[in-house]
Write a structure and sequence with these properties.
The chain is of the alpha+beta class. 23% of the residues lie in helices and 37% in strands. It has an eight-stranded antiparallel beta barrel with strand order 1-2-3-4-5-7-8-9. The longest helix is centred in the first third of the chain and has 45 residues.
Length: 315
């Protein structure tokens, strides 16, 4: 009777979590759609009226920092900024569109392509005996609301979005996509399902703008991403039987599932491989360049007028 109750509880837990994730995804998609339509309509209608609000786009060059189960500091690991590993720093490039109001409020839509990296060999803690690593390419789309203090240029923002991720690992000088290899026994163990390729994210951002000429500005930007998946690095729960993985998925999957070494107990079937109680997070530290695109405020229009004044009325 107890085993039936536990099984029912597990099924209810899985159903509840999936329902919550599905609901969050629907809310984010609808929010992005509404905001996108609002931005487009404001852009079209705004061309026919004089106002102080304006459109701008940004170019974002950033370093990336992975807060995952892998690598990190030389003591007990965590999934916060204290677990930062500078040797695993990688880079990203993004762009976005914003609608800016005179009050300092703005609404924007951003795209980012970046690479995250975590490696147990970069730490001197016991995690180095686990000997796992992950190179994760991500592509994210986010919508945000931002407030900028007009006098000093400091700003903060919050929003919602999606992150599409692809963890990979290297074996014999070749990189392999990890999700399809089911390195923790997904698809073999009936209680483990293959994780999704995407996760909702909540972006938090603070920064400082330095205003240039003609509503152009450059900013130092710190952006944290709260994710809702623990598989951005393909590591979350426990070690699965390596031989069963070999039989079901192949030699490469088996080798990448368990690369532990040393007489430490790490790597034994059923032992801890990751920490499913803490989802993976990441953050960006970079520079953003903001450029106006509203015709009434555009630098290019002013340059065009200067050129026109120099031209004769008749050829």
């Amino acid at each position: 009777m107890l085993s039936i109750s536990l099984h029912f509880f597990q099924l209810f837990k899985i159903f509840f979590l999936r329902s919550c994730i599905t609901l969050c995804m629907k809310i984010i998609i609808r929010t992005n759609l509404i905001i996108g339509l609002t931005l487009i309509s404001n852009l079209i209608l705004g061309q026919n009226r004089i106002h102080k609000s304006y459109w701008s786009y940004n170019i974002h060059l950033t370093s990336t920092h992975f807060l995952s189960d892998l690598g990190g500091k030389n003591t007990r690991g965590s999934n916060d900024i204290s677990d930062l590993d500078f040797s695993s720093t990688r880079y990203g490039l993004g762009t976005g569109l914003q609608y800016n109001t005179p009050s300092g409020l703005s609404i924007g839509f951003d795209l980012m392509a970046a690479r995250l990296y975590g490696d147990d060999s970069e730490t001197n803690s016991d995690r180095r005996y686990r000997n796992l690593h992950s190179r994760t390419d991500i592509f994210e789309t986010t919508t945000n609301i931002k407030y900028t203090h007009l006098k000093n240029g400091f700003y903060f923002s919050v929003g919602a979005g999606f992150c599409f991720f692809r963890p990979m690992a290297k074996l014999n000088n070749k990189w392999y996509e990890l999700r399809s290899l089911n390195t923790e026994g997904q698809g073999i163990d009936p209680e483990k399902n293959t994780y999704e390729k995407y996760t909702p994210v909540i972006p938090f951002c603070i920064g400082k703008k330095f205003h240039l000429d003609n509503r152009m500005s450059i900013a130092i930007d710190l952006s944290l991403r709260k994710a809702f998946s623990d598989y951005l690095d393909d590591v979350s729960t426990t070690y699965f039987d390596k031989q069963l993985i070999r039989n079901q998925t192949g030699d490469i999957a088996a080798e990448l599932s368990n690369r532990s070494f040393g007489d430490t107990g790490i790597g034994q079937t059923g032992s801890k491989r990751g920490n499913p109680e803490n989802n993976d997070n990441y953050f960006f530290v970079g520079i953003k360049l903001f450029l106006p695109i509203d015709k009434t405020n555009n630098f290019h229009k002013r340059h065009y007028r200067m050129r026109k004044d120099k031209c004769p009325n008749k050829w």
